[in-house]
Protein: thymidine phosphorylase
Organism: Flagellimonas pelagia
Amino acid sequence: MEQHSNILKYKHLGIYTQNENVVYMRDDCLVCISEGFEALTRIRVAKVTRSIVASLNVINSDILLPNEIGLSDAAAKKLNVSPNDMLYVSHLEPIESLSHVRAKIYNQKLNYDAYNQIIKDIVEGDYSNIHLSAFITACAGDRMDIDEISDLTKAMIASGKQLNWNKEIVVDKHCIGGLPGNRTTPLVVAIVAAYGLTMPKTSSRAITSPAGTADTMEVLTNVALSADEIENVVNQEGGCFVWGGTAQLSPADDVLIKIEKALDIDSEGQLIASVLSKKAAAGSTHVVIDIPVGETAKVRSMEMAEKLKNHLENVGKAVGLKVKAIITDGSQPVGYGIGPTLEAIDILNVLKNEEDAPKDLKERVVLLAGELLELSGKVEKEKGMETAKEVLISGKAYEKFLAICKAQGRFTQPVLAPFKTEIRAETSGILKRIDNRKIAKLAKLSGAPQSKSAGISLNVHLNDKVEKDGLLYTLFAESQGELNYALEYKNRHNDIITIK
Amino acid sequence: MEQHSNILKYKHLGIYTQNENVVYMRDDCLVCISEGFEALTRIRVAKVTRSIVASLNVINSDILLPNEIGLSDAAAKKLNVSPNDMLYVSHLEPIESLSHVRAKIYNQKLNYDAYNQIIKDIVEGDYSNIHLSAFITACAGDRMDIDEISDLTKAMIASGKQLNWNKEIVVDKHCIGGLPGNRTTPLVVAIVAAYGLTMPKTSSRAITSPAGTADTMEVLTNVALSADEIENVVNQEGGCFVWGGTAQLSPADDVLIKIEKALDIDSEGQLIASVLSKKAAAGSTHVVIDIPVGETAKVRSMEMAEKLKNHLENVGKAVGLKVKAIITDGSQPVGYGIGPTLEAIDILNVLKNEEDAPKDLKERVVLLAGELLELSGKVEKEKGMETAKEVLISGKAYEKFLAICKAQGRFTQPVLAPFKTEIRAETSGILKRIDNRKIAKLAKLSGAPQSKSAGISLNVHLNDKVEKDGLLYTLFAESQGELNYALEYKNRHNDIITIK
């Protein structure tokens, strides 16, 4: 039991495991033998000034020597190590907050302190993926009441940075995802900022969709701005549309969302805490939330939507946010374009009041911007939509949009992709159904969002009368290979668009 | 999208991750780029004749070349690969059974087919630790009814090998763990086999305790026998006490139990399915289950114990096992010894009817063996304990015990450890409490079960009158260092034994 056997020399192995802290040590290293460490043992790894918790993977090859230690990239970054640093390893003291997770597994109600401890330890990286998955599962399936969702949301807000805009009213909007092409955000920002409200909008890149708002806006302007740059843009123009990835708002959410993705669940409690914690941490005071409902959207029934609306508004109240949730039609994609460049073109056409601008996108934008104007109290009830429409038609929204783009560093016109194929109807009839998930998948296979100009331009909408050989949509890609790849998928699936 | 980019050359990295299949590929390998693989993506990895599913860890150092691929040891073993084998990687088709896990997360009742698909995929290695943790959590907290526990048990039985002894009656016993020194199994085997019943007992090594039955028996005889050797011993002597580790009975349980350990939960449904599936797969027909109840035992209240008893017996019926569960006192350790050698000495003293044999161990053994004799129908009701006692007192059980040991390859006398310290009472009074968990931890720190002769020999039991400086227990170790390590723990905890 001599102390020095617990000190090992760091070697860079360069293993990227997402967020999970993994420590690599040899099976024949002295500390493994003397401490009884084995694979998956949770171990504390320390430098002089800081320490992390990591799961052990045991090495029995020469990628490490017995006196060396490796770390996954996430762990190395958190510990800020350099090759040949000496690291001290020891048994992990029990993680107290796991007793709360166990209590939740056994159906007990947790209070704010419990959620706060759990979320703190998650942000510290003390939970393995096994623990994270258990926490998410224990909270899913309607096992959290409004109090608990509120407490979880507060704990998530407290876990990260919080922005302060020194404004009485700061507005925001959010869409409960799942609808291809539903790119209302930049348009709403342009309208409400043109009207004089403050809307410092941060958006995400695509996680599983063919384009996130940040991907789309990157076609037209810079979105990866520093905190200082964002502040300057918002102070100057009243709004922005930037990528939120570096903001460190609600960092626990970034960890949990990856586990939810691996499980392919999006439990109500976590969803609400995720959305509202990000909004509150970003300094918002008034938030409109769009809940599209449809058979192939994320929210599939009116009953689920009503419940979600109710919970969002009540939890919002509990954490000091004015929230209005709007249930919208989620039966089909919005606009014509699916994919960053094609969606950017839709946005510009709406802003410029072009004849062929997508009407459905425009209507949604006017609805959401109108609700936001009313919620802020700056426009009286029943006058929101009218006001939003005026700002759009007048060209002021377009002006504001260009001004924000320029404040963010550039305005670039979108350019169509070089490769394309037109997909035509094999039969005539009425367009009965569009599968949101499959059309999104098709756009992704054509290269979106990595290839910005890849994607789909829809020519039809639900209930349109379609002639045989009439144009249904155009597939765009940046290489012939990607175009073929998407076509193969299309040929294997005859239920992407249903005509009867 | 050329196919050959999906073929990579296997390199041995020697990374042991327990059961989890992990695949290592370079961030700049062509297939990662073209297929959009990223860390934690679930990937199918195939050789010509077989394939596995693994989670990706992305490598950005020279431990791999861009055209090479690595696997965790578990994955390499399942795929049976050798260095330079060419492996084909592809996107994973969706794992259908995860939809059942999601249904369970959302509180739906699952049927046999659903559990069967889940368990099959778990045994195949298709579930990541994230999925396994979600499944265990979703099944915990009283979320399974008797039908579901029965269906899960049946699915776990079907997932592995099943032994057949060609006997009408095959008896077994099991203890719902948590009580140090409770080493009744070998004694029960000796008694019922001496009486003429068949009891092919497989036991586990210690998971978190200072000794498993297999560790203890290994002091006295060989326990790592092949399936053929076990069959020979049982045919010759009617019983055995061997290690069950290589038997491949209920293999899903081996995977799930490691995740439960990481979560430190042992949910009722999984516990019942685990115990009964192992018994049924081992070919047992009549099983007595010991449920010790105590404040620091695994089962802490009579209410929990009654419920568990009820469920064990009912699920047993559903899967065709005659089960009798017995609730026993779990307030303190059983016998004197804690640790393999010290427990082996207790066993021999009971068999030899020694004056100083631990009475509590003897009473438990007579109770359990008696219940088993009655359950089998070979001894009439109310006569079991009397019969068991006769077999023990007569020396026939000791004779049978030695015969089984010899059939298993050797009988070795236990030898005490070279280093020891006596722990004495600091005050006089009545012994009010023994902390089962802490005394077990102390025995482990002294070196048990790796050091066979390490451990604790208790000199006192609950409610004993203790004089100041009277002997409480003796700590044994195989090195002075281990003895010191245990003593340090003892000195930091003054509530291992409470005298008032």
